């Protein structure tokens, strides 16, 4: 029987051992202290002047993601009490995300804003005060909200160059005047591909189920979350663990620069392509998720999604989640079941304390 020393000596010269060691070292370098981390699979660099509006919740184009790729976004912060926890979780998993900050929040909590930047995340803006009914405001008010938000986030970071030319419209209240002004500034409007309704008064378990079921329905995309919500902080570790278990990969998005020229893409990659087995649900998602392109006056305050697909999670059933909070696959989702109730996110003014009114609209 070989001694431990002999086994070790054998290992030193074994190609297999060397390879194993190389892989382990690589993983350790990729995410120190957590070789099993979710990680960030790739970074894509985008030119905001070429693709001005993205996110299938509202626009024809979205990010040029491959199947099973996910981009994480967090709105409405920074708010130290929750943003720091979100940052801890992302750092522990070596996951990079995009934060859409509110100017007033960054002004009040500049250290947290700087931490987001220092940890390698992208930072876009989300107006100065997150006003209610953004798209319906007077043009001058819209401009000052956009300008002041950028100014205060820049001030908090200490350098305007640290702010990405990315903007998410508060409450996704898009309007031609808003989009035209942002285009004039060379800023890319980010809608999203699916939300998790974490701004609503729902449980963190429901946030997990919504995030995963909507992702499974689409197969890839931009997930809209909020870093000012306790339920999001609680849900995030489970969401990340499930993403990894289901073979999803995290993609980080940065604005094109001299240091990082735009990632080469074909125009068709910017349109949402679905694989055939996802078609029934995906079609439904794209056509009904938000009705956000409909005129505001005719838009229902609540949109109910229904599906006939069996390849999704039944998120209305009380039986589809195990005690650990992990959703189970539903094999029999009836046509009459509701997939979820959605409202436009963040449709209220937020305060620097992060508190939001109990109801929306
Ligand atoms: Zn918001």
Model description:
By secondary structure, the chain is α/β, with parallel strands linked by helices. The chain has a single domain (42-342), classed as Alpha-Beta Barrel (TIM Barrel), CATH 3.20.20. It has helices at residues 4-13, 15-30, 80-93, 103-108, 110-118, 139-157, 176-184, 204-218, 230-245, 279-288, and strands at residues 42-46, 53-54, 69-75, 98-101, 122-125, 166-167, 188-190, 194-195, 221-226, 249-255, 303-306, 338-342. Strands 1, 3, 4, 5, 8, 9 and 10 form a 7-stranded parallel β-sheet that branches. A 3-stranded parallel β-sheet has the order 2-7-6. Strands 11-12 form a two-stranded antiparallel sheet. Helix 3 runs parallel beside helix 9 (230-245), helix 5 packs across helix 6 (139-157) and helix 6 crosses helix 7 (176-184). The longest helix has 19 residues, at 139-157. It starts with a helix and ends in a 19-residue tail after the last strand. The structure holds zinc ion. The site of zinc ion (ZN) has 6 residues, from loops.
Tell me briefly what this model is.
The protein is built from ten helices and twelve strands.
Low-confidence stretches: 1-29, 278-343, 347-361
> For the record, what CATH class applies?
Alpha Beta
Summarize model confidence as the mean pLDDT: 77
CATH architecture: Alpha-Beta Barrel
**Radius of gyration, Cα only, in angstroms?**
21 Å
Shape: globular
The main sheet comes to: 7 strands, parallel
Question: CATH superfamily, called what?
Answer: Glycoside hydrolase/deacetylase
What ligands does this structure carry? zinc ion
Element-level helix/strand string: HHEEEHEHHEHEHEEHEHEHEE
Work out the helicity level. 25-40%
Cα-to-Cα separation, first versus last residue: 75 Å
Number of helices: 10
Q: What percent of residues are in strands? A: 5-15%
Number of domains: 1
Number of strands: 12
CATH topology: TIM Barrel
Structural class assignment: alpha/beta
């Amino acid at each position: 029987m070989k001694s431990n020393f002999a086994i070790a000596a054998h290992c030193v010269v074994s190609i297999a051992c060397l390879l194993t060691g190389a892989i382990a070292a690589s993983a350790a370098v990729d995410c120190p202290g957590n070789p099993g981390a979710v990680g960030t699979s790739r970074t894509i660099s985008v030119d905001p002047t070429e693709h001005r509006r993205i996110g299938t919740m509202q626009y024809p184009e979205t990010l040029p993601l491959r199947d099973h790729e996910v981009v994480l976004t967090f709105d409405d912060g920074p708010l130290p009490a929750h943003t720091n926890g979100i940052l801890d979780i992302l750092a522990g998993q070596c996951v990079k995300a995009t934060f859409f900050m509110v100017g007033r929040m960054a002004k009040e909590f500049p250290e947290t804003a700087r931490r987001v930047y220092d940890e390698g995340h992208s930072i876009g803006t989300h107006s100065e005060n997150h006003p209610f009914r953004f798209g319906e405001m007077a043009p001058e008010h819209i401009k000052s909200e956009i300008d002041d938000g950028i100014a205060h986030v820049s001030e908090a970071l200490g350098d305007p160059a640290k702010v990405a030319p990315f903007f998410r419209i508060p409450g996704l209240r898009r309007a031609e005047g808003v989009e035209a002004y942002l285009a004039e500034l060379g800023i890319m409007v980010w809608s999203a591909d699916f939300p998790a309704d974490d701004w609503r008064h729902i449980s963190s378990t429901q946030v997990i189920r919504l995030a995963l079921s909507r992702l499974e329905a689409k197969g890839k995309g931009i997930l809209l979350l909020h870093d000012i919500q306790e339920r999001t902080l609680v849900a995030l570790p489970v969401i990340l663990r499930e993403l990894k278990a289901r073979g999803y990969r995290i993609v980080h998005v940065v604005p094109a620069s001299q240091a990082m020229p735009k990632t080469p893409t074909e125009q068709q990659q910017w349109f949402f392509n679905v694989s055939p087995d996802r078609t029934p649900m995906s079609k439904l998602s794209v056509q009904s998720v938000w009705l956000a392109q409909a005129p505001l006056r005719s838009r229902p305050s609540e949109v109910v999604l229904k599906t006939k697909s069996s390849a999704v999670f039944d998120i209305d059933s009380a039986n589809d989640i195990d005690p650990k909070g992990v959703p189970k696959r539903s094999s029999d989702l009836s046509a009459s079941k509701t997939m979820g109730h959605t409202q436009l996110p963040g449709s209220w003014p937020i305060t620097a304390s992060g508190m939001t009114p109990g109801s929306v609209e």
